[in-house]
Amino acid sequence: MAGAAATVTAVSSCGEGDIVDAGMQKKAKRGRPPPEEEVEAFLAAAENAMALRFAAKYNYDVVKDAPMDGGRYEWVRVGP
C-alpha cells in the first residue's frame, strides 16, 4: 500500500509522576455539594416540567391522577 499513512506509537519508561509534569492538567478538587434546598427546588422544577409535558402529550393529569378533557386520547377506567 504505497502512499498509506503510517501510525507511529512511542513507548516511554517514565513514571506516572512524569506525565503530570509533562503538561497534563491535574483533576480539579471537588467542591461542596449544593444546599439541600437548592437540590429540592431543582428536582421539583424538573418534576413539574415532566408532568406538564406528560399532560400535554397524553391529556392526563398525573398530579390529580385524572384524565383531562379533550386531547388526543380517550381514557377509560378499567378497574373498580
Automatic annotation (TrEMBL):
This protein's record includes keyword Aminoacyl-tRNA synthetase: no
Domain of life according to the entry: Eukaryota
Entries under Pfam families matching the protein: CDI
Family: Belongs to the CDI family. ICK/KRP subfamily.
InterPro entries linked to this entry: CDI_dom, CDI_dom_sf, KRP
Protein name: Cyclin-dependent kinase inhibitor domain-containing protein
This protein's record includes keyword Ribonucleoprotein: no
GO MF annotations, alphabetized: cyclin-dependent protein serine/threonine kinase inhibitor activity
Record keywords: Protein kinase inhibitor
PANTHER family membership: CYCLIN-DEPENDENT KINASE INHIBITOR 4-RELATED
Domain Cyclin-dependent kinase inhibitor: 33-78
Gene Ontology CC terms: nucleus
Biological processes, Gene Ontology terms: regulation of cell cycle
